[in-house]
Structures are given as structure tokens and as C-alpha cells.
Amino acid sequence: MPGGRSQAASDATRTEAVSLDTRNRKLDAHGTKAGAKEEALRSVLWGAAAGAIALAIVGFNWGGWVTAGAAETLAQRRAATAVVAALTPICVEEFRQAADASANLAEMKKAAYVSDQSKFVEKGGWATMPGSTEPNSAVARTCAESLGSEKAVDLRR
Question: What is the pLDDT of residues 8-48, one digit of tens each?
């Protein structure tokens, strides 16, 4: 029987060795599962991608970020607005210095729509700036709005 026990002990030792060997194959050199690092890296990369997408959405929608094209368009609009704001007082002053300014104002106010009033200002030449051959329609519009407002200064100087 001692030989039988030895045989059983030998089989148990062999089974343990095979079992340990199988478990060791699943572990890398640092003692961690080989797929665990790849899975953790994949999770980190997906999290980073989702975070970048969320950051872009929040930044462009609520953070005030703009693309280069949108910034260029915004700059052009602001420049055009600034030019109109600077040239409108010149138009108003030229309108006031006209020989029949009061009659012109009464005629302009007969037009019901601002677009018709701005056409009147354009035809009168008050929206044509020095050095230009064509009237500026945006200046004519704001000039007509300014002249037609209640705040317009008395034209009888």
C-alpha cells in the first residue's frame, strides 16, 4: 500500500502543478492577468474620448468657443456696424445742412416704411460719403431712422 499512497500523492502533486501552471499562464510577468491591462487601457481611452466629445459640446454651445470661420464672420459684422455708426452722424449733418432740410424731413416722413425713407436719403445723396460714388444703404437706413426718431434735433438752425 505504501506504493499506492505514493502513486496518489504523485497524481495530486501533478494535478496541482498543472493547475498552477494553467493559472500562471494567464498571468503576465508582473503577476496580473494579461487581458486586464488591455481592458483597463481600453476603458481609459473610451473615457478620454467621451470626455473630449462632452468638452467640445459644452465649449461650443455654452462656453463661447467659436470656429475660425465664425470668428471671421463676427469680426466683419462688427466692423461693418462700427463703420455705419461712424458714418451716420455725417449723413444726418449733411441732411440738416441742406437748403430745404425741413421740407426734406417732412417729405421723408411721408414714407410709411423705413426702407422707403432710406431710399429717399440715398436719392438725396446724403448717404454718399466723401470719396465714394455710391450711397451706403446701411448708413442711409440708420440715418433715416435717426432723422425720423423723436430724438431728432430741430432742423431749423
Answer: 556 656 555 555 545 555 555 666 666 788 899 999 999 99
50 Cα distance to chain centroid = 21
Query: Could you give the CA distance from residue 149 to residue 81 in angstroms, rounded to a whole number?
Result: 19
Query: Which grid coordinates are listed for 130?
Result: 466723401
Nearest by Cα to 136 from 145, 125, 146, 147 = 125
Can you give the residue ranges of every domain in the chain? 2-61, 68-148
- 132-147 tens-digit pLDDT: 999 999 999 999 999 9
Buried b (16+ CB within 10 A) or exposed e, 94-128: bbbeeeebeebbeebeeeeeeeebbbbbbebebbb
Our CA angle for 59, 62, 63, nearest 5°, is 45
Whole-angstrom distance, CA of residue 97 vs CA of residue 31 = 93
Strand partners, 33: 27
pTM of the complete model beyond 0.85? no
